[in-house]
Design brief:
The protein is mainly α. It is 41% helix and 10% strand. A 3-stranded parallel sheet has the order 1-2-3. Strand 2, helix 3 and strand 3 form a beta-alpha-beta unit. Helix 1 packs across helix 2 and helix 3 packs parallel to helix 4.
Length: 99
């Protein structure tokens, strides 16, 4: 599969945002997507991103945090997951910024 151009990512985000109520905030799930897609979404105005688990979030956050410190990461997971996974992941997310 060839990489998505930034214009395609921006267009998709805009299309989704257009269908949301003004009070809604879009959290883009970056699971399985490379960091350059996150950067393209960031360049299109996206600041809220979701990751499943500590491994994915850690890699994405570490590679992008210095250059894009205003990205807000959200932990998204299923209730059936182990409680330990949640505890291992909490340090990767900045709860203060999103309140």
């Amino acid at each position: 599969m060839s990489p998505l151009p930034g214009e395609v990512i921006a267009s998709r985000l805009e299309s989704i945002r257009a269908g949301l109520p003004s009070s809604a905030r879009l959290v883009a799930v970056s699971k399985f997507h490379p960091a350059d897609y996150v950067v393209k979404a960031y360049e299109a105005g996206q600041r809220l991103f979701g990751e499943v688990g500590s491994a994915g979030a850690g890699r994405q956050r570490e590679s992008l945090h210095e250059a894009y410190p205003d990205i807000v990461w959200h932990f998204i997971n299923f209730p059936s997951d182990q409680q330990g996974e949640v505890h291992r992941s909490l340090h990767l997310y900045d709860r203060e910024r999103d309140q």
